[in-house]
């Protein structure tokens, strides 16, 4: 039977990637320490280096699953019109 695939936490991956970048320990030693192949460590390091600038960018990406500003402004306009109509209907 084959080995069961391990799931590593983001914290573990970050720690391993930083250790790779620092170069204080040989890759073979880090591979044994984290229980992964050297190519996996290299991939984690590359992912950190490629994604690192996004961490420090000033612009935050808008959440894709929430309503946009335009949607919310449109809703406010509709609710304002509804409120005005109801006020007139009640004679206020």
From TrEMBL:
Question: What top-level branch of life does the organism fall under?
Answer: Bacteria
SUPFAM superfamilies for this protein: TrpR-like (SSF48295)
Q: Which residues form the Insertion element IS150 protein InsJ-like helix-turn-helix domain?
A: 13-62
Under InterPro entries, the record lists: InsJ-like_HTH (IPR055247), Trp_repressor/repl_initiator (IPR010921)
What GO molecular function annotations does the UniProt record carry, in alphabetical order? sequence-specific DNA binding
What is the designated name of this protein?
Answer: Transposase
- Native species of this protein? Candidatus Finniella inopinata
């Amino acid at each position: 039977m084959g080995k069961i695939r391990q799931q590593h936490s983001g914290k573990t991956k970050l720690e391993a990637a930083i250790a790779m970048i620092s170069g204080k320990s040989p890759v073979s030693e880090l591979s044994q320490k984290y229980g992964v192949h050297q190519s996996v460590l290299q991939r984690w390091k590359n992912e950190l280096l490629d994604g690192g600038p996004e961490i420090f960018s000033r612009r935050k990406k808008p959440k894709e699953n929430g309503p946009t500003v335009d949607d919310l402004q449109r809703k406010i306009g509709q609710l304002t019109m509804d409120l005005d109509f109801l006020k007139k209907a009640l004679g206020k």
